[in-house]
Each structure stands twice: as C-alpha cells, then as structure tokens.
Write a structure and sequence with these properties.
The complex is a heterodimer of chains A (86) and B (298). With 86 residues, chain A is mainly alpha-helical. Chain A contains three helices and no strands. Chain A has a single domain, classed as ACP-like (Non-ribosomal Peptide Synthetase Peptidyl Carrier Protein, Chain A, Orthogonal Bundle), CATH 1.10.1200. Helix content of chain A is 50%, strand content 0%. Chain A starts with a helix and ends with a helix. The mean pLDDT of chain A is 88. With 298 residues, chain B is mostly helical. Chain B has one domain: Ribonucleotide Reductase, subunit A (Orthogonal Bundle). The radius of gyration of chain B is 20 Å and the shape is globular. In chain B, 43% of the residues are buried. Classes of the chains: A mainly alpha (86), B mainly alpha (298). At the A-B interface, α2 of A face α8 of B.
Chain lengths: 86, 298
C-alpha cells in the first residue's frame, strides 16, 4: 500500500467534506477535529472510506478518538500496521 | 446530566406509567423464536431494502433478495439497539435526580425497562439468525456545548432513532409477507415506542424552553447545524457495506464493491424518497419547535 497515495487520497477526501470555508493548506499534521475541518458526524463516513481503501473492515470496538487527529494519525492508526504487516 | 421536570412532563409521565404497567410484557417468554429463519421467508419488506430499485436488485433472484432482506433486518435491529443503548446510558443518569419529580423518575424506570427489553429482543434476533449484532462505527468526539445542550442533543438523537425506526415498525408489523417473528418484533417495539416518543417530545420542548432561549444566535445556529447533520448522517448507517458483503453480494456471480453499492443505493431516487418519508414526522417536529431552521437535505 503506497503511503504517499494513501495520504493524498485522505487529504482529498477530507477537503471534499471540510466544514470550514477556508481549510487552508491541509498538511498531514493539521489537527482536523480541533480546527473544525471534520466533525464527529463525519467519522462514520471516513471510517467507511478507510475500509474501502484498505479492503479490510475496521474493528469498531478498537476505535479511539485520537486516531482521527490528523492525516498522520490516520496513516499510523489504519494503514501503517497493514503496510508493515503488523 | 440533570434536567428539570415541568408540569407537562409530570402529567405525561403519570399516564405513561399507567400504560406501561398495563402493557408490561416478558421478553424472555414473549417470542416464539424458530430454530432458523426459512430461506423462503422475507425479513424486510422488499420495497424497504436499501438497494431496492438499483439495477443490481432487479438482477437478483428472489432467494438472493430474501437473503439481503434478512441481513438488512439484522442491520436495522442493530442500529436501533445501538441507539437505545446510548439512550439507556444517558437516561440512567437522570434517575433520582433532585430536579425530577417522583412521577418522572417512576416513569423512567419503565422507560429503561422497556428499552432494555427492546435491546434483548433485537440482540436475540441478530445473534440467533446472523450470529452477531452489527457494530456501531461511531466515535464520540467531545465538543464545546452551550448550557443544557448535551441534554437536548441526547433527547433529539433519541427522537431521530425512535421516530425514524417507528416508521419502519408500523409498515413492517402489518406486512403479511414477513416472517411472523419479524412482524412481532416490529409490533412490540412500536407499542412501547409510541409512549417513549411522547415522553421525549415533552422533555425536549421543556429543555429547549429552559436552556435554548438563553443561547446566543451563534450557539443556537451551531446546534441547528449539528442536528441537521445528525439527521442526515443517521441514514448513512442504513446502507451498510457489511450487510452487502454478508449477503454474498461481494462474491461471484455478483462481485460488487460493497462501498460502491452503498453510494449507488444512497443516491437512488427511491432511497431518497424513503428517507424523506421516514424522517418527515420528526423533522417537521424539529422545525416547528425551532430545533432546525429547515428540513435537512436527505
């Protein structure tokens, strides 16, 4: 799973749903929830999008709010374990 | 979380308590659970299956359609169960609050008892016939709220779950095509929820009058935006890729992408019309009460 492609895809998805009129330059470390770029209501759709990218269902019981902090944490939480075979 | 009981809530609570006593039922013995749901049985009205009307639906033979309908029933029951679990958690905190009248507290015991029974019957169907309850893929992200907003949001969320669910309960309890145990689940839920909806509406009105009138325009606008998003997002749960996968649609000969099917199903005109019809009563109530500025686009 190509890390750059995943990060690009996530940024594009987030920007398409951004709740702020000027999300600015969305960096991988930009705090998504803190800045109001995404809300808790977006989380379900984001999880489904991540599932469609991974090809593997997300364990709903293991979801923690912190994983949705930024694109960096989304990569680390959902994709890095698969990429490294962890 | 505390709320203040007002005369109308107390009056309603007394009537509802009497009705709950009259209609008390035992979830452990009420249902005649079959060992299995026959493959010839429908568990969701075909017109209410999430992918009804899509080209794929018309390509499925009736046996495959019934299989999808079984998993859709389990998904619907799972969603309602998850909503009620959240409600039970929030409402339990109100018990014996010094701000509640004795009548309201007494009714809350019946309310919680009935919600627990609902979760038990939904859970029983799901575990018996598909081996699981579909999980909730939600995460609660704490956010800054105005005074009283958390309580109002709780009751509004409950009303969405209950009133949208009731739309389907009413239709499916009388659909003679459905398996009797499915019809009975819908019937029992509808019977109890009619009381819960009445209580929820009274509580929400009073909470709004108590707290929201003191909110700033910005605070009220944020709540209205959130509620509109919530109503819209709740429908996303009805279109569950796991249902499509479990029903075999990702396998040959169908080999569909469950996530693409979900997007297609959600966008179908029939689905949009169903969402609008099922949401109308609760959305109209929210708009009349000032909780929403206008009906959200569904």
């Amino acid at each position: 799973m190509d890390e750059m492609a995943v990060r690009t895809n996530l940024r594009a998805w987030i920007l398409a749903r951004a709740k702020v009129s000027s999300p600015g330059v969305l960096m991988d470390e930009t705090p998504l929830l803190e800045r109001g770029i995404l809300t808790s209501i977006d989380i379900v759709e984001l999880v489904l999008h991540i599932e469609s990218m991974r090809g593997v269902e997300v364990d709903a019981d293991a979801l923690e709010p912190e994983v949705f902090t930024s694109v960096d944490t989304l990569w680390e939480g959902f994709f890095s374990p698969i990429a490294t075979g962890a | 979380m505390l709320t203040h009981s007002a005369p109308s809530s107390t009056a309603i609570a007394g009537k509802l308590t009497r009705a709950s006593r009259v209609h008390r039922w035992d979830v452990d013995v009420h249902f005649d659970w079959p060992d299995a749901i026959p493959e010839t049985a429908w568990c969701t009205s075909p017109e209410l299956v999430s992918i009804h009307g899509t080209p794929l639906w018309s390509r499925l033979d009736e046996a495959q359609q019934r299989k999808v309908a079984l998993y859709e029933a389990a998904n619907f029951f799972s969603l309602t169960l998850q909503g009620e679990r959240s409600l039970v958690s929030g409402m339990s905190e109100l018990l014996y609050s010094s701000r509640l009248s004795g009548d309201v507290t007494e009714y809350l015991h019946h309310f919680l008892d009935e919600e627990n029974k609902h979760m038990a019957m939904f859970g029983a169907f799901c575990t018996r016939y598909i081996g699981k309850v579909y999980p909730e893929k939600k995460v609660v992200i704490p956010r800054r709220r105005a005074k009283g907003e958390a309580e109002i949001a709780l009751f509004c969320k409950v009303m969405v779950v209950e009133e949208v669910g009731d739309y389907f309960n009413v239709l499916m309890q009388r659909d003679a095509r459905l398996h009797p145990v499915v019809r009975e689940i819908h019937a029992m839920h509808h019977r109890d929820e009619a009381r819960h909806i009445g209580f929820g509406r009274a509580q929400t009105r009073e909470l709004w009058a108590r707290y929201a009138t003191a909110w700033s325009d910005a605070e009220r606008g944020r709540f209205q935006d959130w509620l509109g998003d919530y109503v819209r997002s709740t429908w996303g749960d009805f279109y569950n890729p796991s249902v499509y996968r479990d029903a075999g649609l990702a396998d040959a000969p169908w080999s569909v992408d469950p996530y693409a099917l979900r997007r297609e199903a959600m966008a179908h005109p029939d689905a949009v019309a169903t969402r609008v019809r099922a949401s109308r009563r609760v959305v109209d109530h929210f708009v009349r009460s000032g909780f929403l500025r206008e009906p959200p686009t569904l």
